Amino acid sequence: MPPSRTRDAKVPCPHPGCQSIFLARDLPRHLRTHLSPEQRRAYEYECKACGHRSLQKVNVVQHIISKHVNDRFHECLYPGEPACNLTFTTSSIRTKHRNDAHPPDTEYPGWQSVLYLTLILLVIGDIIFVLVLVLVHILVLALAVLVFLVDIVLLVLLVLHFLLVLFLSSSCASLGTGSSCGAC
Q1: Could you give the CA distance from residue 184 to residue 174 in angstroms, rounded to a whole number?
Q2: What is the dihedral sign for C-alpha 67, 96, 108, 81?
Q3: In the predicted model, is pLDDT for residue 40 greater than 60?
Q4: Which of 50, 79, 89, 104 is the most buried (most CB within 10 A)?
Q5: Helices (H) and strands (E) in the chain — how many of each?
Q6: Segment among 15-24, 68-77, 87-96 with least mean pLDDT
Q7: C2H2-type domain location, by residue (predicted)?
C-alpha cells in the first residue's frame, strides 16, 4: 500500500477503554492525551504570559491571540435592533457568538425576504427546468410525427409506382400486338 494511503487509513486507539478512531497520521498526537500529567509536560506547549498549556501549538497560539492580544478584526455586524457591534479576535469565536446571541430563527430585518427570495429562485429554476423538459418532449414528438409523415409519403409513392407499373403492363397486354412497347 502506498505511504499516502497508509497515513489516511483509519485506525482505532490502542489505549484500553478508548473507543476513538483516528487517521493513522493523527494517532501519535492523540496517544499523548493518555499520558500521565508528568509525561504530557514533555510534549506540551506553554503560553509564556499566563502558563496555559496544550498538546497542540495551534491551540496555544489561538489562546494567545484571544486572551492576550487586543487585535479584534472580526466584527459581528448583526443588523438587528439594537445593532450588535461586538468585535472578536477570531472568526470562530464570532461565529459562536452569532449562534448563541443571534440564532437563525431570530427575526433579522430582511431575514424573511432572503428566505422568500431563495424560495422564489428555486421555484423559478424548477419552472425553467420543466419548461425545457416539455420543449424537448415536444421537439421529439414533432420529429417522430415528421418521420411518420415521411413514411406515409414514401408508402403512397410506392403504391402509385406499383399502380403505374400495373397499369402500363395491362395497357401493353391490351394492345395485343405481342410486341413490347419499351416501357414494360
Answers
A1: 13
A2: negative
A3: yes
A4: 89
A5: 6, 6
A6: 68-77
A7: 45-73
Residue type, 113: S
Q: Is the pLDDT of residue 51 over 50?
A: yes
| Beta strands 10-12; 53-54: pairing state | unpaired
Strand ranges (E), the chain: 10-12, 21-23, 45-46, 53-54, 74-75, 87-88
Checking phi first, is residue 131 left (phi over 0); if not, alpha (psi -120 to 50) or beta? alpha
Sign, CA torsion 17/21/22/23: positive
Read off the amino acid at residue 128: I
Please report which confidence band the pLDDT of residue 81 belongs to, taking 50, 70 and 90 as the band edges.
low
Residue 83 has what pLDDT?
72
The residue behind cell 493518555 is 34
Using alpha carbons, list the distances in angstroms from residue 155 to 15, 45, 71, 152, 159.
84, 90, 86, 5, 6
